[in-house]
Design a protein that fits this description.
Elements: H1 5-8, H2 10-17, H3 21-24, H4 32-39, E1 62-66, E2 77-81, H5 89-103, E3 108-113, H6 117-127, E4 134-138, H7 140-147, E5 155-159, E6 165-170, H8 175-182, H9 188-205, H10 212-229, H11 234-246, H12 250-258, H13 267-278, H14 288-301, H15 306-318, H16 322-335, H17 338-364, H18 368-375
Parallel strand pairs: 2-3, 3-4
Antiparallel strand pairs: 1-4, 2-5, 5-6
Helix pairs in contact: 9-10, 10-11, 11-12, 13-14, 13-15, 14-15, 15-16, 16-17
């Protein structure tokens, strides 16, 4: 098995980009795409020739490992670069499988590998139904027609029913543009402007030769240009916050949060921002007056998501609304998968303990610490 060049540099780049684990680890599921980006470090290749708005190349020179051969056009199509040795691809496989199952004949997903049939076929057979979309291996010329110069797997092109590239980027980022494309609301002209900035951002954060402080400054510059085009671009918003934290710029963190349009932000981005900020150990970076509406927004959009409810409960508890936090965490626990139940139950217990203490203080009018002090030492 060939060594994955993206994995070789994992430790170096992860250390460079994420030196503040207490602040950054809690982005949870919404940060998965960021970790995916960090893991797919490649050489500083030139930008791919295939851009948003271009006509997608035909699917010639493909050996179909799974599923019937298809052509571009007729329905939206995802063409994804993956490989058997690619660690992040193990996460995108179930994600793409779920998308294919959800959309059925209204979407084609094709995983394309540059490896040999002998390497790919056993892997796909072992995956079975867990890899529930078309898979092919491509000859070098056909593969390069799509993926020349991309940062590395898992990377994909989203192609509209007319055969034009509507979006391109990392596989875990495709949900929002796909949803917009299927609804006829994807702004392809905007995506065409964002696409080269995304390339620039990816190359910047993955440059092993750059000074870490210089990377943060460049990220601030690139993401400023990106959010000017799309203030809801999740990667730009979150990476801008990360770099501002590392540069100790609370003013930029606040401005980044304030720039997110509350009436347009989706539930996941709203909750991710709120969760990340409410857990910051430095109150000057929390911006609770800005993240409270975001936490509310997430729950308003999806009141059945335990993660969003858990975030909202944490915000409520922080501002002193303990009864409301308990009710919210109880709902989160009731909806949580078993693997998360212990964590949610622990939080619920802590909120209940806070309520007991609050009621005790309200009833007696005396703080426990003050009472111990008044009794004197040893009494």
């Amino acid at each position: 098995m060939p060594e994955c060049p993206w994995h070789r540099m994992r430790a170096t780049v992860a250390t460079r980009i994420f030196p503040l684990p207490d602040r950054l680890h809690s982005l949870r599921s919404g940060m998965r795409f960021l970790f995916c980006m960090i893991l797919i470090v490649g050489s500083l290749a030139p930008l791919t020739a295939l851009q948003v708005g271009d006509k997608a190349p035909p699917l010639n020179g493909f050996t179909w490992i799974k599923g019937d051969p298809v052509a571009i056009g007729g329905v939206p199509t995802i063409v994804e670069f993956w490989a058997t040795w690619c660690g992040p691809c193990r996460e995108t496989i179930p994600h793409l499988t779920a998308l294919q199952a959800k959309h059925g004949a209204g979407l084609r997903i094709i995983g394309v590998s540059p490896e040999s049939e002998g390497e790919v076929r056993p892997y796909v057979q072992k995956q079975g139904a867990a890899m529930g979309y078309r898979v092919a291996v491509a000859e070098e010329k056909s593969f390069r027609a799509y993926f020349q110069g991309v940062p590395g797997p898992p990377y994909l092109f989203l192609i509209d029913k007319d055969g034009l590239v509507a979006w391109r980027g990392l596989a875990m980022d495709v949900d929002r543009p796909l949803k917009l494309l299927l609804a006829g609301k994807l702004d392809v002209a905007k995506e065409a402007k964002l696409s080269p900035l995304m390339d620039e951002l990816t190359l910047t954060v993955n440059d092993p030769r750059a000074d870490p402080a210089g990377i943060d400054a460049q990220v601030m510059d690139i993401t400023e240009r990106m959010v000017a085009i799309d203030p809801l671009n999740e990667r730009a918003v979150l990476l801008r916050m990360i770099s501002a934290l590392k540069l100790q710029r609370p003013d930029v963190v606040r401005a980044a949060i304030a720039a997110v349009p509350l009436d347009l932000v989706d539930a996941e981005l709203a909750s991710n921002i709120a969760w990340n900020r409410i857990n910051d150990p430095d109150p000057s970076y929390r911006n609770i007056d800005l993240i409270y509406p975001l936490a509310c927004r997430a729950v308003e959009l999806d009141a059945t998501n335990p993660s969003y409810l858990d975030t909202y409960a944490r915000v409520l508890a922080t501002i002193g609304l303990i009864d409301e936090a308990i009710a919210c965490e109880e709902r989160a626990l009731a909806l949580a998968p078993q693997v998360d139940a212990t964590v949610y139950r622990g939080k619920l217990d802590s909120y209940r303990a806070m309520r007991v203490l609050r009621d005790q203080i309200t009833k007696t009018g005396v703080l426990p610490a003050a009472r111990a002090s008044a009794d004197g030492p040893g009494r």
